[in-house]
Amino acid sequence: MIGEHRYALHARWTGNRGTGTSGYRDYDRSVTLSVHGKPALDASSDRPFRGDPSKWNPEDMLLAALSECHLLSYLHACVHAGVVVVSYTDDATGRMTEDGRGGGAFTEVVLRPRVEVATAAMVAAAETAHAQAHEWCFIANSVNFPVRHDAVVTVAPDGAVSGVRAEEPA
Fold first, then answer.
1. Which of 30, 77, 79, 160 could form a disulfide with 156 if both were Cys (CB 3.0 to 4.6 A apart)?
2. 30-35 long-range contacts, Cβ below 8 Å, gap at least 24?
3. What are residue 11's DSSP bridge partners?
4. Which residues share a beta bridge with 96?
């Protein structure tokens, strides 16, 4: 099914210290992000840009969106391939380069999924599923920099998965 999906978010700057943006050092970069029906997220700019390092920043959220989108697309690809994933972690990194004129851009993101599957017979299909997941990931398809994958697939220890039966691909 082809469709169009719309998303809405409310961003509210909460960093007015009483004088607004009267000077570069006179305001806080705090923001509250909210989406209807979900908990609010306290955010800020990154520390090098006078932000609060204890809060999420736009760069963190972009990296998180890419990591989570790949994870969810990957799980879907594995179901289609008959692969039973029992564990998935990712230690993603991103590189952003400033341009010297006050701007900059991400130049690369590397996802490092560590996947554990139920049986050794599933390893090859689990490795291949990363390419399918990348094709399906809406967020990766929306950025203009490379999103690379340094994936490792291992087999769950004997007895770690009980009653696993790979389903037929959907």
1. 160
2. 30/55, 33/9, 34/9, 34/10, 35/7, 35/8, 35/9, 35/10
3. 33
4. 106
Q: Taking the model in full, what pTM does it have?
A: 0.86
The proportion of the chain whose per-residue pLDDT surpasses 90, expressed as a percent, equals: 67
Q: What is the pLDDT of residues 48-106, one digit of tens each?
A: 888 899 999 999 999 999 999 999 999 999 999 999 999 999 999 999 999 889 889 99
DSSP state of 55: S
Cα gap 59→44, rounded to integer Å: 10
Identify the CA nearest to 9 among candidates 44, 43, 36, 41.
36
d(CA 127, CA 78): 9
